[in-house]
Give the backbone structure.
Amino acid sequence: MRKQTNSAFSLIEVTLALGIAAFCLIAVLGLIPIAVQTNRNATSQTAVNNIIASVITDMRATTSSTSPQYGIAFGTTKTLYFDGAGQFTTSLGTNSRYRVSVTFPSSPSGLSYADVKATWPAPVDPAATTPSGSVEMFAAFDRN
């Protein structure tokens, strides 16, 4: 006659396995807010890079002293506000998400330089408070 044995997990083994699984799950769940914040920052930086590229393209396409799309006069500081869809206004509104400041450092005659800086959120003045994020580009324009 053969002896029959039943194999199974003991209560201690099951408890240890559940404890390890719970520890790993808590560690992964703790990383979710960081991943969401990183994704939000990457999305904002991508949008701002597109906005700044659009502003610089508008200034490069200018044949007169004022850009056609954004109304930026060369040599005059200008602040624009953009919403999440990329629509701009010249004043801070409820939908404003990004603040774009265009300044013109001194340059030799015939050349124009522009410092284009975008910060978010738009209501935060970067001169007074550190914004959540910022992107800055420097562009040169040949006006000969």
In short: The chain has one domain: 12-142. The first strand starts at residue 78 and ends at 82. The chain is about 35% helix and 25% strand. Residues 81 and 99 are 5 Å apart (CA to CA).
